[in-house]
Amino acid sequence: MSKYRVLVTDTIADSGLAILRAAEDVELDYRAGLKGEALLQAVAESDALMTRSGTAVTEELVNAGTRLRVVGRAGVGLDNVDVDACTRRGILVINAPTANIMSATEHTMAMLLSLCRNIPEAHASVKRGEWVRSKFMGIELSEKTLGIIGLGRIGTRLTMRARAFEMRVIAYDPFISQTVAEKVGAELMSLDELLAQADIITVHTPLTDSTRGMLGANEIVKMKDGVIALNIARGGIWDEQSLADALNSGKVSGAAVDVYVEEPPGKDHPLLNAKNIILSPHIGANTIEAQDRVAVQTSEMVIEALRGSIFVSAVNLPFEGVTDADAKGLVNLAEKLGLFSAQILDGPFTSATIEAWGIEEPMLKILTVAALKGMLTPHLAESVNFVNAAQVAEQRGIRFDATAHERPRDYTNLVTFRASSKTHDVCVSGTLFSEHQQRIVSVNNFRVEFKPEGYLLYIINKDVPGVVGKVGTVLGDHYINIAEYNLARTTSGGKALAIITVDSVLGEKAMMAMRSINAVEEVTLVRL
Q1: Domains and CATH numbers, the chain
Q2: What predicted TM-score, i.e. pTM, was given to this entire model?
Q3: Rounded to whole angstroms, how far apart are CA atoms 401 and 412?
Q4: Per-residue pLDDT for the chain (528 aa), expressed as one digit of tens each?
């Protein structure tokens, strides 16, 4: 029996290595610290590569892997992995996004308690031979209000621990239902309300376009005087210079930070010299238990992926594991339907439904997971994948179901994705003409056909003369090239839909100009 060769180039826990050694169809090549030409040669002879942060999985390295099918990152972050290069080669990239949840939760509590009781400074004082108790007056957590931004897996666990300290917990998370928040004892509210009420503010969200710099000078002004700030999530969510300025002015009375925009931070980093701050070197996941789980989970999933399973913790498309070419295309199409819907739906999801016509029923679960993954990706890019998409949706109180119809409808195959928020519904359908010919063929009540790829302008307008010309003029004035312009309408003089494929991103000025066209009622830039 031929064996899959798994190359491990960083030190991982023995428990993970034991799983690889025990697999009858795996040949383990464990060479921690492998570099240079020897690394390139070893990758060329391997079916899977497992790393932590010590190996840079560059495009050159990926292209050297002529047999490479899987890259396993034994951890959460993917800063050292060129995911796009892997995707282009059809290489599945997996990580262990849930392995450090408990460790990150406990490190948040440890940093908070250390800050509130001056433990680092008090320890250093005693070590110097001092005994100045009055210098280290702390505060209790009891009866304080903890504001949590991001009530996901870490945020909910942190809520339960804070409640045990008799704290009031308030939370901002537009993608969590009231039911989920109430279950753990948190009060959901708007971001501005949280900023005004919280004594302590901690963030537990992924770093995305919408969360990068979300807590800057304008937000700090809205906070209580003397607020405490924590960042044990991702560097860049708090604006570092604004936080340092607020610490030095006293607006923020203390901060605890484990993560930074650039790691390690340079000697002139503003937080290194800020007042009343404790810092740690990105060690939220550095526990024996977390590293053991990371090694075990990554090793198990690398083996499953090599054996053809699609349900592994994939951060890119599941090229491996779906053997039929049409099946690959349908999975990708379902994911794009969810991704498209997420960007045009007004408000957080409350329910989702997938329907399939002319598609074998065993594919239904895969299509459902793919659509949910696409739906959640804009908000949880780092932590949602084919393994946990359904679980994450359930955790956020999103109801979902699926139905398969034997007889085709309009097309040989058709996938429909319906989603709802409290105030809005969307219904998007797509079909697959061949593996490389995906089309969205219906958006809500509009029959329109377009390729689900690239940058798309989604426009709803009154069906009156002149709109197409005005839209084209705005795009031309801002040097945006049109690749495709697809139109549909319900009835003459009613509502019209335009899906415009463009070659580049529209800036804020271009979007404002588009919205200023009188007949335009809605315009959204969608990225697929």
Answers
A1: 1-99+285-321 (3.40.50.720), 101-279 (3.40.50.720), 323-444 (3.30.1330.90), 454-528 (3.30.70.260)
A2: 0.73
A3: 22
A4: 789 999 999 999 999 999 999 999 999 999 999 999 999 999 999 999 999 888 999 999 999 999 999 999 998 778 789 988 888 887 889 988 888 899 999 999 999 999 999 999 999 999 999 999 999 999 999 999 999 999 999 999 999 999 999 999 999 998 888 888 999 999 999 999 999 999 999 999 988 888 999 999 999 999 999 999 999 999 999 999 999 999 999 999 999 999 999 989 999 999 999 999 999 999 998 999 999 999 999 999 999 999 877 778 788 865 445 656 568 889 889 999 999 999 999 888 899 999 999 988 878 888 998 999 999 988 775 567 776 788 888 888 999 999 988 777 788 899 999 999 888 999 999 999 876 799 999 999 899 999 999 999 999 999 999 999 999 999 999 999 999 999 999 888 899 999 999 999 999 999 999 999 999 999 999 999
> What distance in Å separates the CA atoms of residue 210 and residue 146, rounded to the nearest whole number?
22
Helix (H) or strand (E) holding 302: helix 288-306
Return the structure tokens found at 148: 């949590």
Angle between helices 508-515 and 467-477 (to 10 degrees): 160
Q: Which residues are catalytic?
A: 234, 263, 282
**Cα 413 from Cα 53, distance rounded (Å):** 43
- CA 19 vs CA 43, 295, 297, 300, 336: distances in Å: 20, 9, 10, 7, 35
Report which DSSP code applies to 490.
S
